[in-house]
């Protein structure tokens, strides 16, 4: 894809994708399909829950859906919500570590070709699964990158599972960071639109974040989303960065890469606009009731 065509393609996505444009997030909705429960790394700040209706953060879902249930949910919500533009798979584990991700993406691309398909990943399997991503019709990806050098990554990740082997400490950190940066470069060269998420962990990766922005820009990512740490898990004693710290970091990184400032750190089963998330179980139920009512009165 030429530079001119790529720019036009990115502009088209930005007009409709709530994560890539603050204007779009006020006009259009998205739905996250929780079909990917398995994860191949352990972040020290992450706790995944698969039956939780009360918390609102990444790694959380009311329940994990089968591929058939996920497709049914998209169909029901689309019939009720004309503003839905994006279908994403963001967990509650890692999208690329679950074959269901590709089963669902292919089905949605076949049934609803105008929908923007996107996934979130830690990037470990990005070099390996890139052909499958492209074949499934996925148009944009978010890669969470929290470190540049293994010495810092080692403090953030407990272990990595790659090709049926567990890695720990520096070996795990080196493998993960190498695959993240290689995968990012391969993805943008293949024409995918890439956003980089970075968790701001005070005292751990403060100095790394501007370097992440610089390197991501050189590898043709189009946006960085710096999100504040949610203190939990092994990082439960750390402090969340203040709003002032977060804004200062975004301002510094903006010199290298455009910044997202409207992220809501969504659940793995989020539905609706970024400002007005709906209960996805209730939305699907209401859509079904509406269809049954129409059948009764016709």
Average pLDDT confidence is: 82
CATH class, named: Alpha Beta
Helix content: 40-55%
The largest pleated sheet is described as: 7 strands, mixed
Number of helices: 10
The chain-level structural class is: alpha/beta
Quick overview of this protein structure:
With 298 residues, the chain is of the alpha/beta class. It is built from 10 helices and 10 strands.
Tell me what you see in this structure.
The chain has 298 residues and is α/β, with parallel strands linked by helices. The chain has one domain (3-288): TIM Barrel (Alpha-Beta Barrel). Helix content is 42%, strand content 17%. The chain has ten helices and ten strands. The strands form two sheets. Strands 9-8-5-4-3-1-10 form a seven-stranded mixed beta sheet, sandwiched between helices. Strands 2-6-7 form a three-stranded antiparallel beta sheet. β8, α8 (208-218) and β9 (223-228) form a beta-alpha-beta unit. α3 (67-80) packs across α10 (280-297), α5 (126-135) packs parallel to α7 and α6 crosses α7. The longest helix has 21 residues, at 169-189. The radius of gyration is 19 Å and the shape is globular. It starts with a helix and ends with a helix.
Helices and strands in order:
Elements: H1 3-16, H2 22-27, E1 29-32, E2 41-43, H3 67-80, E3 84-89, H4 99-111, E4 116-121, H5 126-135, E5 140-144, H6 150-156, E6 157-162, E7 165-168, H7 169-189, E8 193-200, H8 208-218, E9 223-228, H9 243-253, E10 271-272, H10 280-297
Parallel strand pairs: 1-3, 3-4, 4-5, 5-8, 8-9
Antiparallel strand pairs: 1-10, 2-6, 6-7
Helix pairs in contact: 3-4, 3-10, 5-7, 6-7
